[in-house]
Amino acid sequence: MKRANKTITEWKKQYKEKHSLMMERGYEEVSPHDFYRELFPKGSLQETEGDGKGNIIATQVRPKGQGRTRQWIVGDDLKMLDKVVGDRFGLVPPISFYGKTHTIQNAHELYAFVIDIDYVGKQQLKNLLKQFGNGVQLRPTFLVSSGKGVHVYYFLKEPLPLYHNLADMLKELKEAMIRRLWNDTSSIRPDDPDLTGIYQGFRCVGSQSKLGADYPVRAYRLSENRYTLEDIKNAIPFCEVDVSIVTEKPKPPKKRGLTLEKAKELYPEWYEKKIIKGEPAKRYTTNIAAYEWWKRKIMNDVKAGGRYFSIMALCAFGLKCGVSEWQIRRDAYSFIDHLESLTEDEDNHFKRSDVTDALQALKANKKDLTFMSTREWIEKQTKVVIPPTHREKGKRLKQAQHLELARYAQKIRDPDGEWRNKDGAPSKEQIVRAWREAHPDGRKIDCERETGLSRHTVLKWW
User: Fold this and answer.
1) Are 440 and 447 in contact (CB under 8 A)?
2) Which of 51, 386, 421, 441 is 20 to 30 A off residue 71, Cα-Cα?
3) 415 near 426, Cβ under 8 Å?
4) Complete DSSP assignment for 323-341
5) pLDDT value at position 81?
6) Kind of pairing, strands 90-92 and 202-203?
7) CB 30 within 8 A of CB 219
8) Contacts (Cβ under 8 Å, ≥6 apart) of 436
């Protein structure tokens, strides 16, 4: 029966049927410790403090009033993993971290590409297994039954260092893979994919699922395969995400053009204020009206499915507008009752703990905060439609008027037209075509660097 609003009793039945199906098909169930040992091979995590390796950060999530949410540092011996195995709500990302907290800034290496598919019944699981078997979908290393859904794990051949310049590429690739796997054959709700980020944590294998203590998160081996990002990209038809940046050699650091001693000599006032007195640099802040505008949007336009991300966007707008973190937190918690009133699914209530988790966005870096306040991100994640606007709408000159003014100015400056290039500038297409003819085995990234063209332009004419 393909019905999304199943009762808890029906989902518990589906859970047992899915487990029986995996056993009947001969898929090996792997213990939590064996699963994470294979994900994080011996020697890949920190053994002694200061050895330069990362740790697993395992999180015990607790709703308000039911205990304190805690994060545990799991080293190479995996002993502390027992803190979340069997726990009510334990999360483990497929990432190693420096430091003691699960933050984007502390992320060190990515060990697996993980896709979360929700609302997977027995028939949907059969469909997935068939597609993995016949090559329609890329066969994962492990499939984890998380209760109502599944987590599809693609272990990587080599852990990927999580440099900030890879963030956009990884986000695009993961989103493409989510849309590839989450469809009308794999989920009862195919039109509502959860576009989770690369830093997402997943319910720990061996911990409890949403269905309760008798329905643990289980891991089943589907293959011995490990993959590269190129393998994952090639499994997505018409995927144009450029993963070559991972294999390229890093650029050498730029040489500084001015030493501190020279700056002291040339700019004594700046040196006194910034170096001696340590005064912070002035920051540009957006008008507070943008923050108040988004608060109204939360009350009037946000619906179930976009509630969590609406609070993340509130953090982004607040910090850009110079609002104090204290005020942002206060405003965020004030929306709990309203956002809970939007609940459509009894299994998807909006709680205080959801706001607490979303407020972690206050710790995001400047680039991520800017991204979370863009119209494209807000529309995609919160389901709030924001029509594009134009500055001074109604007062802008039309294209013909602009051209008329430009030609008039040109005629005044050069009435004889001697400065003109009669042959015209080469088109972008001609530049790319000429470069490819000169470099038959050249790469897109090299074309970008040598011609100065943007990535989108090179891709368009490649």
Assistant:
1) no
2) 51
3) no
4) --HHHHHHHHHHTHHHHHT
5) 92
6) antiparallel
7) yes
8) 442, 447, 462
The tens digit of pLDDT for each residue in 288-305 reads 888 899 999 999 988 888
**416 is written with which tokens?**
């004889």
Determine the Cα–Cα distance for residues 371 and 104; give it in Å rounded to an integer.
14
- pLDDT confidence of residue 253: 46
User: Whose CA is closest to 356, among 98, 109, 105, 59?
Assistant: 59
Summarize pLDDT for 323-344 with one digit per residue, the tens: 888 899 999 999 999 998 888 8
Q: Tokens 């991520």 belong to which residue?
A: 368
Rounded Cα distance between 187 and 148, Å, is: 10
* The two three-digit tokens of residue 386, written as one number: 């924001």
Phi-psi region for residue 452, left (φ > 0), alpha (ψ -120 to 50) or beta? left
Structure tokens at 36: 């994470």
Q: Which two tokens mark 158?
A: 């080599």
Question: Quick one: CA torsion of 221, 227, 233, 237, rounded to 10 degrees?
Answer: -50
Say whether pTM exceeds 0.70.
Answer: no
AA identity, residue 292 = E
> Residue 255 and residue 328: Cα distance in Å, rounded?
40
Q: Record the tokens describing residue 302, joined without a space.
A: 């946000």
Distance CA 112, CA 226 (A): 9
Q: How would you class 271 by CB atoms within 10 Å of its CB: exposed for 0-12, middle for 13-18, buried for 19 or more?
A: middle
- Taking alpha carbons only, the member of 56, 57, 80, 37 closest to residue 221 is 37
Q: Which two tokens stand for residue 406?
A: 């430009």
CA atoms within 13 A on the CB side of 445: 11
Decide the pairing of beta strands 208-209 and 70-74. unpaired
Hey, how many other C-beta atoms are within 10 angstroms of the C-beta on 425?
A: 8
Query: What is the rounded distance in angstroms from the CA atom of residue 129 to the CA atom of residue 23?
Result: 13
Contact 140, 132 (CB under 8 A): yes
- The answer to whether 162 and 111 have CB atoms below 8 angstroms apart is no
Instruction: Find tokens 């796997």 and name the residue.
Output: 181
